[in-house]
Batch of 2 targets.
Target 1
Amino acid sequence: MSTTTQTEALVTLDIEGNLAVITLNRPDKRNALSLRVVEQLRAAFESLPDTVRVAILAGRGTHFCAGLDLSELKETTAGEGVQHSFKWYEAFSKIQFGKVPVVCAMQGAVVGGGLELASAAHVRVADETTYFGLPEGQRGIFLGGGGSVRVSKLIGFSRVTEMMLTGHVLDAQEGKAINLAHYVTSEGQAMQKARELAARIASNAPLSNFAIMNALPLIAEQPMSHGLMTEALMASITQSAPEAKERVNAFLEKRAGKVSL
Ligand code: 1HE
């Protein structure tokens, strides 16, 4: 079944069985992130029905996302700027720590806040037209959508520093080499690849997906002794679920697929 919700249409939500496709829908402005777009993103991720097991995040048109809507900065005070960032943090946290894993399908510009957004997704697929940049330095501003944390965790703060200072723009393959994309496809094929990956993710045990999304980032920030304890607790909870028992038995009884290339 497929249903579409198009509230004001800055972000669309399509439900196709156990898959949700959430699409930035402002191609005339290159999907620039105004506060209304950010609010609609948050609402879309929050409203996913329990039947959904995986989501794809995409951008309509030739560019995934041109980052912050710069027209919103003209009149902003310092206090409003902080509130603004916190609205982004809240929305992006619904992506990273939301109900289901998120695969991001990208093309064209993935810049500034667009890269901050993509880095909140769990799996990133770029087509060959994709390029990554952090033009905040050129615009006289700074990261404000969580990129200092999320993008730095992906590629290291030294590369973030270099990209911001020099305006260095990376193509899709260069982005893949440093973790900004996990897959690169030919032009126009990112969504198809994202769908293929989403189907695989949806076939996992939901409790394993929950642990992968929520425990791994936490463990990465814990000291080793705490991390190992968190891992052991998560391992024991997932493996004692009836679904895990059935999946393991299915393999032992040769009813489940083998790992293959
Ligand atoms: C915008 C924005 C935007 C396009 N805010 N309106 N982001 C940037 O510095 C990137 C700025 N954008 C660009 O460099 C280019 O637009 C693109 C490379 C993304 C695309 O180029 P192109 O030739 O396909 O489109 P365009 O003609 O530049 O833009 C089409 C329209 O979108 C145009 O408006 P129009 O009314 O003249 O048609 C542009 O003004 C508009 N547009 N990008 C507002 N970003 C939480 S902190 C995050 C900090 C940041 O994100 S800094 C990075 C901001």
Note: The CA atoms of residues 74 and 81 lie 11 Å apart.
Target 2
Amino acid sequence: MGERRVRVHLATDPGVPWYYRMDREKLEAAGRDFPDTLRQIEASWSDEDEGFRRGVRDAEILIGWKFPKERLAERAPALRWIQLNGAGVDHLYPLDWLPPGVALANASGVHTGKSFEYVLMALVALNNSLPRLIGYQQAREWRKIQSGTLPGRTALVIGLGAVGSGAARAAKTLGMRVLGVRRSGRPHEHVDELFRPADLRRALPRADYVVLATPLTGETTGILGADELALLPDGAGVVNLGRGRLIHQPALEDALRRGKLGGAFLDVATPEPLPPESRLWDAPDLILTPHVGADDIERYIPHCLRIALENIRRDLAGEPLRNLVDPALGY
Ligand code: OXD
């Protein structure tokens, strides 16, 4: 009997820069660790809608991120599962387009390295009042703000998936005490004290810095609103590299304008792209980066493809897939 072959369609989003593109060279490079699996794949590629429609016609597995979803059951009758080139799946909800029985897996783990560095940068910057000092520099004012160091200060990391793990490791590396919020309550190697989401309000008053690293779901939307911000110590800092809507943005802006917060470092906003007329751009003590904090441009797609190949290997071996998304939980 011949070796089992599997039809895989790799759909790059139209117009993305080279580092988000999937191509044969990247697949073959990622496949060096999976030579048998690579041999069993019959791949097709697209980077525009027509090619996508052609490619999914007989595909069993789709690898992509923001592909056309309408009438997918009809267009891709053989589809069994979708491997996503990213972690947060909120852009796919509601899931009414998902053909019955088709599973979703994400690329959780792909952001850990960069999120470690981003949070390290954000904590150091906030603790050194960098956003305020940049403002002084732009105003050509030689004004001093002295600061202390981070060891002994407390970071609260909300969400301890792969991104939150990078964040917790960054805070630990900086000698901080780390509090974590995790739904499962499972201990984490870089977290000193764990809280369940229901106990968030007990943790907030102890947080010199809050890092948001949780997926956006019905439960986490607005998890940091006016009431939660009020519970933070005066001068606390906020870092967000999850999704903009985790924070009630007007409340955050207000807390910055009133000087309640010492500063904020945001990689995400509502909406994205943030329109030029948004008042958030001018909020004091804020550094805003345009959703670039967690993706390593050299390693991003190669890492996603290794995650995909490991799942295809599992699929062919009849083993359970990794990183399956629970449609009810939203991650
Ligand atoms: C993600 C992202 O993968 O925001 O969710 O990049």
Note: The chain has two domains: 6-110+296-316, 112-288.
